[in-house]
Amino acid sequence: MTTLRPLPRSLDPLPDESIIGYVLRLGHRLGLAPDRVADITGLISGHSRDRMALAKMLTTIDHASMAAFTTATRLTAHEARQLFLEPLMVRYPPAVWATWTKYRAHTQFGSWVFTRSTRYCPQCLTGNDTAIQRDHGGAWRRSWRLPIVFACTTHKRLLEHACPRCATPAHHRSQAYLQRWSSAELHPAQCRATSHRTARPCGAWLTDPRRSSSPLAPHLRRLQDKLVALLNGKPPGIPTSPGETQREPSIYFLDLAMTTYLIRATWPVSGQLLRNTEEIAIVDDVLGPADGRLQSNYPGRTNPAPRRAMSKLHRLHCTPPLETLPCALLLSAADELLQHDSTEQLVARFRPIAAVAEDKLDVVTGHARFLCSPRLVDAIAEIRNLPTRRSATPSAISSLGTGHSARE
Ligand SMILES: [Zn+2]
Ligand SMILES: [Zn+2]
Hints:
Blueprint: H1 19-30, H2 34-40, H3 53-59, H4 63-73, H5 77-81, H6 94-97, H7 101-106, H8 122-126, H9 131-136, E1 151-152, E2 157-158, H10 218-231, H11 249-265, H12 277-293, H13 307-318, H14 324-338, H15 343-357, H16 362-365, H17 374-383
Antiparallel strand pairs: 1-2
Bound molecules: zinc ion (2 copies).
One zinc ion binds at residues 121, 123-124, 152, 154-155.
């Protein structure tokens, strides 16, 4: 490929900044549209312009594109690499699986990255008092793309997920790239959605300081601190996977995703795992309508649903809510469930779920048995009267850190 020239002016990345946020800020600084920035920095040359183009760009770029990008932006290879999700994969495997067709199709974990929109903290987007952030705003963080990040640990608040004016999810895309990807008229912190009334960009400021946020409950703040510490590779010092305190973060996160799926797929019976009726109502407000929309395609057990409708329902259940509070409450219930020390305790906690939809558990003892913790797999196997894997080899997760496929 052609070697690109260094840009006349570049920009230092901010901590945890995503490549999309960096392109938006750099474009705003240079007076260029995001697509032009992606072009002159070599970013899009490594990807096709298909519907997953932005998801792939969020994840990683090939070596030649990376070389062009670092030349154009004058970033070091390390600085450039940290703009992508791939470095998180070693501790959070779904960071890459979201674009890995094989895993998206065959596991529960492909949806554990938001590739169609993002969450955000209005105060972080406002930026600090430095001239560069006053002009171009703060970072659109890459961790906001992960369902496990539902609160800002700096500003002690829940993240937002949609525009306060038009209610479109932030950075929503229905095509390959963000809306207004070819337009230089918007600030990085403005809503890019198109107004149905005027066909113009909404343009609302996502940094609006007048917006209030629901208080972050102490148990959710503790959970978020733990999840962020694990994501950043800090020693947890706190229980993660069942009965153990020092499990690999990657296994814990997959256990957490799997357990959240089981709670989601057996809602509303699994509501009993939440702390109180208020929490149940908050989750039900999101899950109820989502399930309801598929009801017409899902006639029930006595009238077997078409295969396509079942598959849609399964995908819905595998996808954590974008809305932060319901998602946080589901994760909290899953985390508390996983804290039970013994297989026997786990079995007892999972029984109510098994009683309503035992078949939902089979995914744990199927292909995911090589990814989740042995204790979780054993507990589910015991409920299903299957052989446990106590004598089996350790999780295959370590072989996945290098991008190799798991044994199936
Ligand atoms: Zn913040
Ligand atoms: Zn808007």
